[in-house]
Amino acid sequence: MNTIALEIWYDEGSICTFYTTRWVTNDDAAASETDRFFETYAVSEHPLE
Predict the structure, then answer these.
(1) Given CB 3.0 to 4.6 Å as the disulfide criterion, which of 19, 20, 37, 47 pairs with 32?
(2) What are the tens digits of pLDDT across the range 2-45?
(3) Taking the model in full, what pTM does it have?
(4) Is 23 helix (H, G, I), strand (E, B) or coil?
(5) CA 34 → CA 23, 29, 39, distances in Å?
(6) pLDDT higher for 1 or 23?
(7) Angle CA(20)–CA(48)–CA(35) in degrees, nearest 5?
(8) How many CA atoms within 13 Å lie on the side-chain side of 36?
């Protein structure tokens, strides 16, 4: 059975909180879906990168 976890990805305190999902595996260091997205599609010249 596939299991996913909902986790806080980035917390801006009282302003906003971003959540992400992560596959629950035996590897606790597994990247979240949001991290995998940015690793794939991030533009290195972007000012926030």
Answers:
(1) 20
(2) 788 898 888 887 888 889 888 887 767 778 888 888 888 877 77
(3) 0.59
(4) strand
(5) 12, 14, 9
(6) 23
(7) 25
(8) 9
